[in-house]
Write a structure and sequence with these properties.
Chain lengths: 280, 280
């Protein structure tokens, strides 16, 4: 059974993503930070890693984009979870008792308007992980505090669900990348995506010419993300996802063409496209 | 004298940006959140607002991009500060005493490697503001905790500087946007930037065609940022900065051309380009 590193505590959405991708027999290995997940896969302590890269409401998890650049791992798969958040508290606690709420900043962001409506003036306290916020609340036994996390986290730590589905928007999806030391082996003809990262000389029209590489070959871009290029203020690394397999002719030619214009270019991996899965 | 809303406590870098832009007679008005800054300018409680939009190491402050879309204010100026961070503690406290460090997540990010070197294993605790972390430390009087902030913040709260310039990279700049209810009046011929936000139908080649609008007119893009389009998973709003004044012919034509392709398009403002200023 593969071992799969993830950031958070048991009950975290990343753990769920690991089970969805590798099956219920996978052995999840909780880590305290995203850096530790990348480290565990790099040094062989885990076979794979699963990290969130993007939420459809709160946006990208930039730390993981930065870590993709810093480490030399491959993206070998993606998992898309439809995420529903729950307001969790000690048994018997009611909404008027609550003055503080713990969760990961992305979960707090995703429930921002619900929190303002349900718990006006509540203090939002950022915790490293959604499931970790439930664990912390259970350990502290505070009756003035709630947490936001999955149903599974509430069950694992024996707390009550005060309100289900408190996310502001039902179109709340998180996309996870599956990391490995080896690139994926992909069946010929499978519907794929490829992720790359590149930087260009900062000259007028450079991004236009980079986009042309793909547009002129009818390759569909699904995502572009810019991140600061360390040491070069106001220059950027671009993370790009596009449809296709980097080993197929058209994509290979596009990447070669792009390399004529870039100062940095890495293929992070080609992997099968995923469909969304619901989690409560 | 203009009143200028900013997020944080006295001694915050945003307050410094307000003084740099409006002069030392400006009346800074501290707010607890970025939302409150936008709110204060929108409802007339403040003449202007100053919010950070981007750091050259840690990246964009996405909340402020989202708030630009949610409110109807204009960007009327930019301020670029060269930011230096200081490790601040109670008088007499030494490095080995320190097990926790408070600061804003961007400051923690910007000092990540220094912290690992200077204070191995230190617990990083996110606080809403750099200067706020110093205020909190002063109030709590904890001798096991340090804060990361400006020299001015250390002075204001009578704490000591344990180590200067702990940022990982000297190329640490933060760019702030100056917000107003009215667009800027710009002298003809002044070197300008314009910020816009747009969304497009999600069809292959759409970003390429949007970039073409600018490239074919030799308009230089200085920044592109994608943010999730709420309610449409995996579709994006693009925030774009380019050289030029939206009222000049070439830029006006480019914006009209872009509007043929967009589902959402707003000009956030044209404003004079700024040069970087050093702050310790």
């Amino acid at each position: 059974m593969p071992t799969v590193a993830y950031q958070g505590e048991p009950g975290a959405f990343s753990e769920q993503a690991a089970f969805d991708h590798f099956g219920v027999d996978a052995i999840p290995q909780p880590c305290t930070t995203f850096d530790a997940v990348f480290g565990a896969v790099t040094d062989g302590a885990s076979d794979y890693g699963v990290v969130p890269v993007e939420n459809s409401l709160a946006g990208s998890i930039h730390r993981n984009y930065d870590l993709l650049m810093r480490h030399h791992l491959y993206i070998v798969g993606e998992v898309i979870l439809r995420i529903s958040h729950n307001l969790i508290a000690l048994p018997g606690v009611q909404a008027p008792d609550i003055h503080r709420v713990y969760s990961h900043w992305q979960a707090l962001d995703q429930c921002e308007q619900s929190l303002t409506r349900l718990l006006p003036g509540v203090e939002r306290i950022q915790v490293y992980d959604t499931a970790g916020s439930v664990k912390m609340l259970a350990e502290e036994g505070r009756r003035d505090t709630a947490a936001i996390a999955s149903k599974r986290a509430a069950e694992l730590y024996n707390l009550s669900i005060l309100r289900e589905a408190i996310e502001d928007d039902a179109t709340n999806y998180t996309r996870f990348a599956v990391l490995s030391r080896q690139p994926a082996e992909i069946a010929p003809g499978a519907a794929c995506k490829t992720s790359i990262v590149f930087a260009m000389r900062n000259v007028p029209g450079s991004l236009f010419r980079a986009m042309a590489v793909f547009a002129l070959r009818d390759i569909d871009l699904t995502k572009i993300e810019s991140r600061p290029l360390q040491g070069s203020p106001w220059e950027y690394l671009f993370y790009l996802d596009f449809g296709g397999n980097a080993h197929d002719d058209v994509c290979r030619r596009a990447i070669n063409h792009l390399s004529e214009q870039t100062t940095i270019l890495r293929v992070l991996g080609s992997y099968p496209r995923a469909a969304a899965i619901s989690v409560k």
